[in-house]
Amino acid sequence: MADIKLSKIATRAPKGTDKDATKAKTKLLIDEIKVLQDVLIASGKKSILVILQGMDASGKDGVTKNVFGTLNPIGIKVHSFKKPSEEEFAHDFLWRVHQVAPAKGEITIFNRSHYEDVLIQRVHKWIDEKTVSQRFDAINNFEKLLTQNGTVILKFYMHVSQEAQLERLEERKTNPEKMWKHKDQDWEERKLWKQYINAYEDVFKNCSKAAPWQIIPTDHNWYKEFLIARKVRDALKDLKLDYPKLITNIKK
Amino acid sequence: MADIKLSKIATRAPKGTDKDATKAKTKLLIDEIKVLQDVLIASGKKSILVILQGMDASGKDGVTKNVFGTLNPIGIKVHSFKKPSEEEFAHDFLWRVHQVAPAKGEITIFNRSHYEDVLIQRVHKWIDEKTVSQRFDAINNFEKLLTQNGTVILKFYMHVSQEAQLERLEERKTNPEKMWKHKDQDWEERKLWKQYINAYEDVFKNCSKAAPWQIIPTDHNWYKEFLIARKVRDALKDLKLDYPKLITNIKK
What we know:
CATH architecture of chain A: 3-Layer(aba) Sandwich
CATH class of chain A: Alpha Beta
Oligomer: homodimer
Number of domains of chain A: 1
Helix content of chain A: 40-55%
Distance between the termini of chain A: 57 Å
CATH superfamily of chain A: P-loop containing nucleotide triphosphate hydrolases
Largest sheet of chain A: 5 strands, parallel
Structural class of chain A: alpha/beta
């Protein structure tokens, strides 16, 4: 994959993009996804893994809610990866991730993922560079295994500007409905912005073998939701799945 | 790893090996393993994964019982892999295996393992050769991941002769204490002996990167137990672990 320089990529919707028209298109896309999801479940041959990564307040939760929130929950699983537990730390970093990989017929959303193990852990120097490089390989191998088994992996980097992040973090201090999201730690991590950008760019470079990264501008939530819904619809459509034919031994 | 030809390797203890003396040595080895296991648990840094593979009646259950049966169960886990469940089949072949990989401080025994996915499945042509080759890679990558995380993998092929197997399968038909082990299927699989040997030799050739295979003659149970106990003792000793020092902030 060609080197990605995040500073060269817009975080906003292209000038002149019509907000209401875009929202209407997103709604239609989600209707299409619902139909395609039904076939995905029925055919039980393939699965979709959506990986959402990005800075704090880059809009990961919003995607989960607004793009996937109305799909059939029988075929949707969401996993939010937090600080590993003691038991998780006693295993390799992919142990907890592999367990929740999608089964055939499922769409699984990773809200944060195994990439945290080469992002926050690297930025804070909790791991050395040799481990980072071993983990890049392990991630590529793991994603290849899933891909060979019929999983389509969609990796989205939620590309937010420092200004938009500041606005959103500030809102969490004042909006009573958002205060529960406020964490002092987010303000500390914000100071490491440059280091995170570097670590992300290195991830894009080293971990795009099994599945490419897609950079999603997220300063406008309505635009981000449209882009992701379109990618998901396209991925489902490309699977060209059909409802299985009737199988029965019962004679009339 | 140099090519292994099983037909060239003995299935019996070397001539003149003293049975009682060997059994006495095994007992001492197991005592040593117990002491070393206590440090393994206490230090919580490393783990041991023992993989037992071999034809039916090659003596896998006996190893589990007689070599590992008296160790501290707090640090021992045994997983016998059977035909995958529907949920397991809906995931990649390593999904169920990764979940039960050892945590730091543990000794885990796999009675059969992910290798069945390139043995029984290949011999019966349930998978094509492209899948076999993808799985070899996936196994090597998986074992590398575990190794890099502090797991020592000991892979034992239980090398039994066709004659000794016949004797043991026959005994299951007549000995009331062994009848529960009899399965008609074992007699069917026995007809595929040559194909299994070929599949095993191919496994040794292709899946010895992260950890080598050790061929254990198993026509004599007492000899097999001695060899495996010695390998396990050596592996634990090589870890050079110590009891952690006291950590406390309580002032007297």
